[in-house]
Amino acid sequence: MPALIVCMLPLTAMAQEGVRITDGHARGANPKSGAAYMVIRNDGDRACTLSGVETDAAARAELHTSREENGLMRMVRTGPVPIPPGASHELAPGRDHVMLMGLKTPLRDGAELALTLDLGACGRLDVTVPVVNTRLPARGD
Ligand SMILES: [Cu+2]
After folding, report:
1. How confident is the model at residue 139 (pLDDT cuts 50, 70, 90)?
2. Which residues form a coiled coil (predicted)?
3. d(CA 20, ligand 1 centre) in Å
4. How are the residues of the chain apportioned to helix, strand and coil, as percentages rounded to the nearest 5?
């Protein structure tokens, strides 16, 4: 029996080696949409590329960035985002973020949001972030 477990573990363990997230949180903008934020740190020796995000919690999850145009904050799709070894990339209000569209249920404080990050050559990373609606940003999404 122990041999079987040893054989199965590396598949998932290797995909995530050296990559971790900190400061993850999410909040709703309205009942149908919201955003998720986190710092993705690459402590491995492989070049990672944040290429996409998936979730069962919403119809769509996209990588967005916020930028100012003519005095207005606008959101546009972004990515893929390179995260070289030793680097980190911040998804934060008013900057890059995971946009959630078509939420199946509104994001309520205390709930947890499960996401899968597609990190290119670094594989896929399952993360869970808490919903904190009161953590309001300065501007944008
Ligand atoms: Cu957005």
Report:
1. very low
2. none
3. 23
4. 10, 55, 35
